[in-house]
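Fold it.
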Amino acid sequence: MTPRILIVATMRDEAPHLVEWVAHNRAAGADDILVFSNDCTDGTDDLLDAMQAVGALTHVRNAVPEGRTPQWAALKQAADHPLTRRADWIAVLDADEFVNLRAPLTTLHDLVTAIPGADAVVLPWRLFGNAGHVERPQALTIDAYTRAIAPDALYPPLSRFFKTLYRKAVMQKPGVHRPKQRAGPPPVWVDGSGRALPAALAADDTRILYWGAPLATDVVQLNHYSVRSAQDFLLKRGRGLPNHTEKGIDLTYWVERNFNTVADDSITRMALATRAEYARLLAMPEVGRAQARSDVLTRATLARMLNDPETVQLYGRLCLSNGSEPPDAALSQHLVRLYRTATGGQS
């Protein structure tokens, strides 16, 4: 029987790129998409409702309890949701993360079939930069942003974060980067090339990044478009992060993620299917209208931001910092050692 694959996400003010993200996951074979929204000001919640009405996803308006972050509140609800109970495999993704399957794979079902015996597949981040875009380009994310960090870069640490596609039956509940495991022997974990991961990493629920070797992406990569254009970054700063509401989105955040070192357009092989589903969704009257309304709100928000002195100052600094370069191997290894020592060996 074909396994059922579920994508879970938490969103706030993601309307400019939302339909593309949904289209990409549907084209990649996700059977169900479960999205929790909170505190939206750009029409994201209405756009999600519109896509729910045409059967593209399931939308839950997330009332965040006092003292909880939106993402963890959503994941607590997701753990008991009917779609979770029906699912065989689950991945928790953000709206700036796009699954990039390697040939000959074309769907997530192909991926789980290609790694028989695995219980969890690491989806390794590949950090994509702004590709020189200052203003918001009139193009899909997968077409506009084709510059990324080099695959052999060992620094910064966040370049080695990963998400997880996991078999629900052997896990306890979903988590942001990896699920919480059940008691007992650790499940079988594989990297993005399908190779078994060390038992220590597999057994430790706190391990959410993997250092020490070039990216393993022979089977799958997770394109992480965490900055996009400078104007998109300003909008991201306005909405904040779903699981670290206290963390600032500032120049430091930009510098640590805006890598345009090498070209990577490998996701193009999935683009035809994504574009077709994107066009199909936008052709639905209710979806098209909701997108048009949200576009008006987004333009108004950006105009207000560009009339604020502090934001304009940041905007100028983003333009001055139009691409980071990872340090060479020797310095990277030195910085990694310093970081591990300072954090008590965590990695």
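The mean pLDDT is 93.
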